[in-house]
Amino acid sequence: MTYEVLSPEELALIAEEENLCNTLIQSIRQVHANRRPQGHDASDRLELLREEASTAKSADLPALFDQMNTQRAILRLKKDEALPDPRSPYFAHLCLEEKGKRRDVLLGHLSFLRFRNTPVIDWKHAPVSRIFFNYREGEEYEEEFPGRIAQGVVIKRRVVTIHNSVLLRIHAGGKSYRKKDDGTWVRDAHGFSPSLSGGAGSANRTLQSGLGLTNTPAPEVSALLDPDQFRLLTADYDDPLLVLGGAGCGKTTIALHRIAFLRFQDPAHFPSNKILVVVPEEGLVRLSKKLLGTLGLGDVEVKTFDDWVEGQARRMLRNLPGRVCTYVPANVSRIKRHPLMMDVFPEIVRRQVEEILRSAAKFLPGTPSVATVLRDRTDLCLADRFDLAEKTLLDEIEAEATATAPMRTAAVKKFFMERRKRYLNTTGDRADLFTNLEILEKIAEQSGGIITSGMIRDLISHSLDQLGQKAEEVYSGYQSDSLETVDGRSLIEDEQEQSISGTIDTEDFAILLELQAYKAGKQDIAAQRIKKYAHMVIDEAQDLAVIELKALSRALEDDAAITIAGDAAQQIDPTHTFESWERVLDTLNLPRVYANYLMTTYRSPKTIAAFAHGVLGPIAPTQPPAAIREGLPVARTVFPNEGQMAVFLSETLSQLMTDEPLASVAVLTKTPEYALTLYKLLEDLPKVRLVENGEFEFKAGIDITPASEVKGLEFDYVIIPDASRGVYHDKPEDRRLMHVAATRAIHQLWVISVGYESPILPIEPGL
Fold first, then answer.
1. Domain count within the chain
2. Which of 43, 304, 307, 670 has the most CB atoms lying inside 10 A of its own CB?
3. Model pTM?
4. Counting Cβ atoms within 10 Å, is residue 135 exposed (0-12), middle (13-18) or buried (19+)?
5. Cα–Cα–Cα angle for 194, 196, 201, nearest 5°?
């Protein structure tokens, strides 16, 4: 391979950077070398002082102790003063000119100020790093620094790669250079960043349930349905419709259009206020409402399961805690969402029956028939046992016709009224459900090792914290002004924010509703306390646990239409394990129907579909989805450190927003914490947004958000910035999460790793 001859200016630039790199590394090594003997001297001196103090007179001890403290401070200073790693001490070189004076700064991960001419600054904290990220070479800058306004010109802005103390790559002025194995330098045409382009004005607006904002005219999505999709949405509603398929196959679009079709066919049977759409994330709630609005169905109820089940529980159960716990340990969620949780119900009722019988012996003496009914009639729910026991006693009193009959009748009615109020409202059962070690150990034994003793300890500890004293109870005897802190807030407010006392977990709502149904049976239905739906859509049904599906099933009218859409490959919640679609249908009390598989993905091009399928590895479906269009290869970049990654990511996004201001871009991280970290680095870019809790605006720009928030959504460009070893592990939930992230892309996908690629990334052809 032949390379272009570098110009004298390019060779001078490279020589300058090599000289700077070598000089700095020598300086760091010199400091290391000088530090060791000083450290040893201080250590030896401290040891001598200890020996001297052991035999010294008491009058001499204060002076000795003072010297010992001095030597300890020297040792501590030497230990705490971390130095940059000489193998890779910095990643960028910035030269600024202010008021005719120039100064050079190097950006790295640790500051090193002893190299006075060109100090190394920690890029994460130094204000000067804002200039590096926000301005290009030759641009004028104005930034507010502590105590002053900095104004000047960026003279040099260079990104470098140093590995094992050797400068290997330089990126400057839009050009890249790399050092070959023989030590010569060549121009590198590729650099680190892919060219993200082709979104605005070139989108293939086929059947999509998301919103890739390319701002190009597009036909109505309804006109783009293929024959198979049209057949599904117009299917008769007598049987449930089970629609399965990979990301971008149109499952959600079919489900939403089926609502419009059935509503048109029989508006009396399917009024809008009796239709429910359940989706996994708040972002998809917003998008589904938007799409339903275009179909004239803006008043259809669309909710996440968590929101829906909380509303149902608060309507049906009394005295629920008002505050929902914002963080539930994974082990706690795993137990609460496990099917065996429902096996606790009979034991809970059995124990409560014994409590009731002990009370009956005290308040209703001489009534053995109570025990016969309450304890033995296990074929009846608790509410029906109450009714039968009360009727039996009242009949006995009436038959006896004694003078005390009115008083005894009143006592029986009062007794059962109080017991119904206590035991048929399951809010008070949380302690029995979640803190009874004996009961919980039994379900652990039945779980085959899935539920462990450690998980049970976590559940009990978490539940006891929730059931403990509330802050307002702890401080109930204090005057309000004595609880005010220096910032004007109340101690109670601070305690409430930090404490989980008096909270309830989202998972509890479905459990308490199911326990309520177990205890009350058909009486709840007769009282019409459960809101019933004539048509229900359950999207991404693979994410719902058995007990959650049970709660939904009780909200279906007898002849309700139901559409179930899903993709087992997108089941990303580690607290739940998807079993089978047969189990989903059985749990919903629906007949086992044939699944309708959609095998064509209309969202992503072939390259992205193949990459996403490869990410799934051993859990991938046997047959990959068929994509209808070609596309650019998936861009994969490995950066040596996070600093370089942030530099090139910032540059690429800035250029993309300049070239395609109407494009939608998603930067999808594994965790919310890393999304926030990236946002702080990129917040000065145009149209960049941190999206939390699914609050998407569906506008052109850059959305930074966790991958778990984007199911059902789509974007022109998707960037996965943390596809690194140690972040994405070789386990099913991580494979599915990256699969979800990758399949959001309509046009291009850029996968970034820092250090080393995650082992779940597919092997590239030819490697």
1. 4
2. 670
3. 0.73
4. buried
5. 160
Q: Is the dihedral of CA 632, 637, 643, 648 positive or negative?
A: negative
Say how far apart CA 639 and CA 91 lie, in whole Å.
11
- The type of residue at 600 is T
Neighbour tally for 670: CB within 10 Å? 22
Residue 720 lies in a domain: yes
Tell me, yes or no, whether 582 and 721 share the same domain. Answer: no
What is d(CA 494, CA 498) in angstroms, rounded to the nearest whole number?
A: 6
Q: What is the DSSP letter of 484?
A: B
Query: Residue written as tokens 């309520």?
Result: 516
**With b meaning 16 or more CB within 10 Å and e meaning fewer, what string describes 38-71?**
eeeebeebbeebeeeeeeeeeeeeeeeeebbeeb
> Is 275 in the same domain as 344?
no
Residues in the chain: 767
Give pLDDT tens digits for 169-187.
Answer: 888 887 888 888 888 999 8
| Alpha-carbon dihedral angle through residues 387, 388, 393, 396, given to the nearest 10 degrees | 130
- What is the domain extent for residue 246? 227-306+515-599
- Whether residues 575 and 453 share a domain: the answer is no
Half-sphere exposure of 577 (CA within 13 A, CB side): 9
In terms of Cα–Cα distance, which of 545, 543, 548 is closest to 514? 548
Question: Residues 171, 232: one domain?
Answer: no
- The pLDDT tens digits of the residues spanning 685-722 come to 889 999 998 899 888 999 999 999 998 889 999 999 99
For the chain, which ranges sit under pLDDT 50?
A: 37-39, 77-80, 200-224, 471, 474-476, 478-479, 482-492, 494-495, 526-528, 766-767
